[in-house]
Structure formats: C-alpha cells, structure tokens
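Hi V.,

Quick status before I head out on leave. The structure for the redesign project is tokenized and pasted below; the design run finished overnight.
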C-alpha cells in the first residue's frame, strides 16, 4: 500500500453492524425475509400501503434501541479521532451505531431510522419511537404526512456531490461489509480507482465487485477493521 496516503474514504454497509445483532439485507435470515423489497423499500410501496412500510421501519427503530456499537464501529471512531489526514466515512446504514461509537466525519447516504421527513412541509427532524401512519409533523403540525427519512429504490441518495468530490480526491478507498449489489454505492470503487486511489475491501465474503479492488481482506469486520486501523495509525 502507498506510503503517501492522506485522504481516505470509507464506505460501510450492513455487514459492519451484523456483529451488533442487526440483520443484513441479503444474507440468510436477511431483513427482507418475509417482505418483498418492492413491498417496503420504494416510494410506490409507501403510497400503496403506508402501514406495512411504517411497521417495517418501526420494528427496526425499536430493535436499534437494544443493540450497541461493535469493535468495528469503535475502531472506525478511533480512526476518525486520530487520523491526521482527510477522512470521510460514508455509511449506507440507517442505524446510528457509527455516531454512537463516536465517528464525526460521517454521512448517511441512505438516510436515518432516527429521522422523519414531512411530505407536507418538506422538513426533516429527529424521531424516536414508532412513527406509524398517524404521525404528526413537529414543524407544520400536519398529521399523516411523515415518512421515515430513508432513501428508497428510485430515489437519489443524499450528498452525492460531496461523495463524488471525496472519491475523486482520495488516495485510499475502503469498503467494509457491503455486498456491492446496490448502486450508486457499488460504483464508488470504480470512481476512486479511476482517479488513482488504492482500494481495499473488507468483507465476510468476496462482494459482487470484489475483482475491482486492488486488495481484499476476507473475514469479520469486528476482527479485521480494528487490525487495519491499528496498522494505519502505526504507519
Ligand atoms: C459482513 C459481516 C461481518 C455480513 N463482517 N462483512 C439496474 C442496474 C444498476 C442500477 C439499478 C438498476 N435498476 C435500478 C438501479 C438503481 C438502484 C439499484 O442499485 N438497484 C439494484 C437492486 C440493482 N439504486 C437506487 O435506486 C438508488 N438510487 C439511485 O440510483 O438514484 C439515481 C442516481 C443516479 C445517479 C447517481 C446517483 C443516483 C437508491 C438505493 C437505495 C437503497 N436503499 C436500501 C434500503 C433503504 C434503507 C433501509 O431500509 O435500511 O438501502 S436497499 C438496501 O441495500 C439498503 C442498504 O443500504 C443497501 C446496501 O446493502 P448492503 O449494506 O450492501 O447489505 P447486504 O446485506 O447486501 O450485504 C452485507 C454484506 O456484509 C454481505 O456481503 C455480507 O457477506 C457482509 N457481512 N456479516 C463483514 N460480520
């Protein structure tokens, strides 16, 4: 690996939270088990059956209150605190385990379970507990127009300009715990590579885009991420 690495972009997916007890999407016993993705994760699905979609996210928000950050989240937070160069941690996860571990240079490209978005006034705000179809907007007071602040299929992920800029400027791109099945995140490795960055994948198994990474470490994030952070901070 290059010795002149300064700017780093890290992408995380559901695999980084698996050892905390949160289900991944596409694994055995995955999150959509029992739900077809088009029944819960699209704007059309929400228009068709808001109660079903709210129930799916309310259950996940409730589960979030019972789990804790794991060794991978903690190591990435330590890395954030100690890495002297530029760093951007992009998570596809809608849980709050990175921030609870202490990560600061973080963005949630697919939204957050702990936020609501009012379709009547456009405001986004923190949300704790169940949302349900009768939720009232804390900004405009409209009842029944609040949806989870989650990026569904067909919607534009958040902060794409900032992400693209960071990918083009980074010296190292690291992907952790993601299957590479969902775009645009699955294409970040190509952008970073094209712009000259080294690329590293850390995953339980080779992802769909594994061949695009210059290096790959296969195993549990809770073991491999603390090792990688230790190596990087002792360079
Ligand atoms: C471990 C581990 C351990 C387990 N340690 N590892 C045709 C071709 C190409 C693209 C498209 C297409 N048709 C439509 C599209 C676009 C579409 C898309 O990608 N569809 C695919 C199905 C093909 N994408 C979109 O619609 C996106 N928007 C968009 O493209 O806008 C237009 C645009 C244009 C130009 C620029 C930019 C944008 C929006 C995507 C929204 C995704 N939303 C979801 C659900 C909402 C959030 C939620 O409910 O939580 O986000 S989908 C779901 O997948 C969720 C995740 O964030 C995302 C990624 O999943 P992830 O994290 O990779 O989880 P898994 O389960 O797949 O993988 C876990 C991995 O961890 C596995 O590999 C395990 O092995 C590993 N693992 N334990 C280490 N202990």
């Amino acid at each position: 690996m290059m010795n002149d690495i300064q700017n780093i972009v890290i992408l995380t997916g559901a695999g980084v939270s698996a050892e905390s007890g949160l289900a991944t999407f596409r694994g055995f016993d995955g999150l959509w088990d029992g739900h077809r993705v088009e029944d819960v994760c699209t704007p059309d699905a929400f228009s068709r059956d808001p109660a079903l979609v709210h129930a799916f996210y309310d259950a996940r928000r409730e589960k979030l209150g019972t789990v804790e950050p794991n060794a991978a989240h903690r190591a990435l937070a330590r890395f954030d605190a100690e890495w002297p160069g530029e760093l951007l941690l992009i998570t596809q996860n809608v849980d709050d385990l990175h921030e609870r571990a202490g990560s600061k240079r973080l963005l949630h490209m697919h939204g957050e379970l702990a936020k609501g978005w009012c379709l009547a006034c456009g405001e986004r705000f923190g949300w704790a507990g169940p949302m349900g179809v009768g939720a009232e907007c804390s900004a405009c007071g409209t009842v029944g127009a609040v949806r989870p602040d989650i990026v569904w299929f067909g919607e534009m992920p958040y902060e794409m300009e900032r992400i693209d800029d960071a990918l083009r400027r980074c010296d190292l791109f690291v992907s952790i715990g993601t299957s590479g099945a969902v775009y645009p995140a699955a294409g970040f490795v190509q952008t970073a590579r094209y712009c000259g960055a080294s690329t590293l994948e850390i995953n339980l198994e080779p992802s769909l885009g594994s061949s695009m990474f210059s290096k790959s470490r296969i195993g549990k994030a809770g073991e491999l991420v603390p090792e990688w952070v230790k190596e990087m901070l002792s360079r």
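Above is the designed sequence. The chain has nine helices and nine strands.

G. will cover questions while I'm gone.

Best,
W.
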